[in-house]
Design goal:
The chain is mostly beta strands and 198 residues long. The chain has one domain (28-197): Porin (Beta Barrel). It contains 1 helix and 10 strands. It has one helix at residues 2-26; strands spanning 30-43, 55-67, 80-92, 97-109, 119-135, 146-163, 168-175, 178-180, 184-186, 188-197. The protein has an 8-stranded antiparallel barrel. Strand 6 and strand 7 form a beta hairpin. The chain is elongated, with a radius of gyration of 25 Å. Residues 19-25 have low confidence and may be disordered.
Length: 198
């Protein structure tokens, strides 16, 4: 009888020791998506070719992330989100100029946890294409009425997300699209909008 009690006690100790490891092995990362709509104001380099110093537009961003709600990520890499974005400005200025900026981006939260449970500053990098369609003042015939270009763009940025209620929040970005065309232009854009996580 004493032998059986001893075996049961030993087996119980082993099971208790293995339980945390088993729970950790069964732990799965959760997935979260966020959809954002925003307003944008572009300050474009003179070489892009319009008399307006700034262009106003709208955009949207869809992002994905995986996270462990019980264990805050300690590394910057563990606090990343990735996704797609698009921003559009209608024809403005003279000559009239419209733009479309689309691509992929990665955000990395600077802090392990949002400050005060709400403020989440981040750094960001994006790559994509920057399309411009500019009015041709020399001719208004056929396809020659617009001068169109599509160039590669690299966009570093900083910003912050501010959690508001439940899954809703606000987001502000300061972005610097570098457009690599016949010449490289450094541009600036300020964005502000709201997001919904699901």
């Amino acid at each position: 009888m004493r032998m059986d009690v001893g075996r049961i006690a030993a087996l119980s100790a082993v099971l208790l020791a293995l339980a945390p490891a088993g729970a950790q092995a069964q732990r799965r990362l959760l997935e979260r998506r966020s959809l954002e709509v925003f307003g944008a104001r572009y300050a474009l380099a003179d070489k892009i070719g319009t008399d307006k110093s700034s262009l106003d537009g709208v955009g949207a961003r869809l992002q994905f992330e995986r996270y462990d709600p019980d264990r805050p990520a300690r590394s910057l890499w563990g606090r990343t989100r990735g996704g797609l974005f698009a921003a559009y400005t209608t024809s403005q200025g003279r000559p009239e100029l419209s733009t479309l900026h689309v691509g992929v981006q990665t955000d990395a939260s600077v802090l392990p946890q949002p400050l005060g449970g709400a403020v989440d500053p981040f750094i960001s990098f994006g790559i994509g294409v920057f399309h411009t369609s500019r009015q041709n003042l020399l001719t208004q015939i056929g396809n020659g009425r617009r001068i169109r270009r599509t160039d590669f763009a690299f966009t570093p940025a900083v910003g912050t997300r501010i959690g508001m209620v439940d899954r809703f929040g606000a987001r502000v970005d300061l972005r610097a699209p570098f457009v690599f065309g016949t010449s490289t232009t450094a541009n600036f854009v300020a964005e502000g909008g709201i997001y919904f996580s699901f």
